[in-house]
Write a structure and sequence with these properties.
This protein has 11 helices and no strands. By secondary structure, it is mainly α. The longest helix is centred in the N-terminal third of the chain and has 34 residues, at about 5-40.
């Protein structure tokens, strides 16, 4: 068995990094806002929102991918409108893979950030409010610095989940080599071909290295933040 990655495998690795990074950067701001709403606000339908946020965790990934195809596909309500109005196509494109990865990673990001917010003493925010600070200023200068470790944890969890997403992605965008084939779909494809054990092991090793690298970087950044 010979370990090694060919050009197609490296393309899958780079595409996975691109998809995971875009998914994390796009989903994180919304995850912070939703986590803050769930942690600090009381309103009718809060439990419904909480259930919708965490729904991708309990639904089979294939179901999520099918729903994405129905909604964001070429004939979908949103997908059709995007295609006709802006010429944007998500189904069977790498951007669709990023969307699927973001949706699957979103609950983990929200949960990590929400735990960080709930650990912050509300009295600190109330004290800032009594001094005349606006809600945005309070969040930017008081809450956000205190929850930075939770935000970093959520970002790393989201990135790792997006990097390893398979079910929803392959259902929504398939596994087109060079276009939508990420590391998980590349591994799945290689497993169907006899004699490709070496390439599979190489991709598995790359996945482990990337995941460990993200965790180590997150821990280092969190320590820097706490030190400040």
């Amino acid at each position: 068995m010979t370990l090694g990655l060919d050009a197609a495998a490296w393309t899958a690795v780079l595409l996975s990094l691109r998809v995971a990074l875009v998914a994390t950067l796009c989903a994180l701001p919304l995850a912070i806002w939703v986590a803050h709403v769930l942690a600090r606000r009381e309103f009718w339908g809060k439990q419904v929102l909480n259930g919708l946020v965490h729904l991708p965790l309990v639904l089979p990934p294939v179901v999520t991918g099918y729903l994405l195809l129905v909604v964001f596909g070429g004939n979908g309500v949103i997908g059709g409108w995007l295609a006709q109005t802006f010429g944007i196509t998500l189904a069977f494109r790498w951007t669709g893979a990023a969307l699927a990865a973001a949706i699957m990673a979103f609950p983990l990001m929200v949960r990590a950030v929400r735990l960080g917010i709930e650990a912050v003493d509300p009295g600190l925010e109330e004290a800032a409010a009594t001094l005349g600070a606006s809600r945005m200023r309070i969040f930017a200068t008081v809450t956000l610095p205190l929850i930075a470790p939770g935000v970093l944890a959520g970002a790393v969890l989201g990135f790792a989940k997006a990097l390893g997403e398979f079910g929803a992605t392959i259902t929504f965008v398939a596994a087109i080599p060079g276009q939508t084939q990420t590391i998980p779909s590349a591994i799945y494809g290689l497993l169907q071909v006899p004699g490709q054990e070496g390439a599979v092991v190489a991709l598995v090793i790359v996945s482990i290295v990337l995941a460990m690298g993200a965790l180590i970087a997150s821990e280092w950044l969190a320590r820097r933040v706490r030190a400040r």
